[in-house]
Write a structure and sequence with these properties.
By secondary structure, the protein is of the alpha/beta class. It folds into 2 domains: 221 residues, Response regulator (Rossmann fold, 3-Layer(aba) Sandwich); 154 residues, Response regulator (Rossmann fold, 3-Layer(aba) Sandwich), CATH 3.40.50.2300. Helices cover 39% and strands 17% of the residues. The protein contains 13 helices and 14 strands. A 7-stranded mixed beta sheet has the order 7-6-8-9-10-13-14, sandwiched between helices. Strand 8, helix 8 and strand 9 form a beta-alpha-beta unit. Helix 2 crosses helix 12 and helix 12 packs across helix 13.
Length: 411
């Protein structure tokens, strides 16, 4: 039998229930407006789903405590949560259950892993329900869909912008620009999208030589052969593109075993899983020191009050991309509902498409702007680079949210 915790994770969770008049049915203006969160609540990516849930619940709590949706007579928000599981097929099935069981949904946020988002958004698109996502894959918004909105830079955009920025960081720290790299990446859509500009030769003008390129299918059983290539070729830095903490742990431990860890070889990853608190517990600060990762969002300068409140409410040591992005997504839906004046998904989608914000919910995204192109990509998005320093993952780029200066590990 499932325990209370598992039931809470896998069942739909209601936050901010509708107010019911004593002795009679709830009035229409008191009925909660339903927003879905679909994310992995079980399997290897369950921790990321948990962090998304915490951010979403805090946003709902804040909205309802402030009086709900003003243009709808103060109606509260209700968050319904579905487990995407550990495969794209399970994620798609969960999405189908979600839209079937909750026909009044005005929007959805999720699904974390790009492969899952590709599957889930097929369902929400057919149902004409707007979906906001923090997933990176370029494929998500390359399909001509009208109801999918990608909040961060795509993986391809992140790679194009991140590699030159990281090379400049290295040059500023060491006086020399690296000329060699190596790639260890899983075969998920997010990792492939990030590595694509380098593999396709788009980075050739930077004079960057790829000395090895290894791909694996998660979950990883043994990292020996992968890291052996790094030891034998000795690139000046390595791209380590996984998507799950257990895989990251295996890779970092093997890197250390081969004498490359602890800052001896600069390691650059992609995705917020590399800043997850449990990675610190599993690996320890020494192996993580200097490791960098490119993410679509992170809590930093300007969000001090938010971070402190989140930590107090949840007991988490810091606020990751997963939490602040989901918090922001709920606030975007709140803004769209206020403008639409009705709890209708098509009207909400129209208001999201028309957004051009530099305040309000825009404060929860790097770049400080929300504006979508015809594909549903946020043209105001920027990337964030975080780095492990003294046991903490801190943003080092861009300057407007950075809380520490970058360091470039040396051998």
């Amino acid at each position: 039998m499932l325990g209370r915790r598992e039931l809470l994770k896998t069942a739909a969770i209601v936050v901010g229930a509708a107010v019911v008049a004593a002795g009679g049915p709830a009035l229409a203006q008191d009925q909660a407006v339903q927003i879905g969160l679909i994310a992995p609540m079980s399997g290897p990516w369950a921790r990321q789903g948990e962090l998304m849930r915490l951010g979403g619940e805090l946003a709902v709590k804040d909205i309802n405590a402030a009086g709900g949706i003003e243009s709808l007579g103060g109606r509260p928000i209700e968050l319904v949560i579905f487990d995407a599981g550990d495969s794209a097929e399970k994620a798609k099935n969960a999405a189908q259950r979600m839209v079937s069981q909750y026909p009044d949904l005005v929007g959805v946020t999720g699904a974390w892993l790009s492969s899952f988002t590709l599957a889930v958004s097929e369902v929400t698109e057919r149902a004409e329900i707007p979906m906001l996502t923090l997933s990176y894959s370029d494929q998500i918004t390359n399909r001509g869909f009208k109801y999918i909105f990608q909040m961060p830079m795509t993986g391809n955009e992140q790679a194009k912008n991140a590699i030159p920025a990281l090379l400049e960081v290295a040059k500023a720290a060491t006086g020399e620009q690296p000329t060699t790299t190596g790639i260890i990446a899983d075969n998920t859509a997010s990792s492939e999208s990030f590595a694509s500009p380098i593999r396709s030769g788009e980075m050739d003008e930077l004079g960057l030589q790829v000395k090895f390129d290894e791909t694996f299918t998660p979950p990883l059983a043994d990292a020996t052969a992968l890291v052996q290539r790094a030891r034998s070729t000795r690139p000046q830095f390595m791209l380590m593109l996984g998507t799950a903490v257990p895989d990251d742990k295996l890779l970092l431990e093997k890197v250390n075993e081969f004498g490359l860890g602890g800052g001896r070889m600069p390691i650059i990853s992609s995705g917020a899983h590399m800043g997850a608190p449990e990675l610190l517990k599993s690996v320890g600060p020494d192996l993580l020191e200097g490791v960098m990762t490119v993410v679509g969002n992170w809590a930093g300068k300007g969000s001090e009050e938010m971070i402190a409140r989140f930590k107090e409410v949840t007991g988490e040591p810091w606020m990751t991309q997963d939490s602040i992005a989901t918090y922001g997504d709920i606030m975007v839906f709140k803004e769209a509902l206020e403008r639409a004046g009705k709890a209708d998904p098509k009207a909400v989608a129209d208001e999201i498409r028309a957004m051009d914000l530099t305040d309000g919910p825009a404060q929860y995204y790097p770049g400080g702007e929300i504006k979508f192109d015809e594909r549903g990509r946020n043209t105001g998005a920027d990337l964030v680079i975080i780095q492990w320093q003294s046991g903490q993952p801190v943003p080092i780029y861009p300057d407007n949210i950075a809380v520490a200066k970058p360091i470039w590990p040396t051998k």
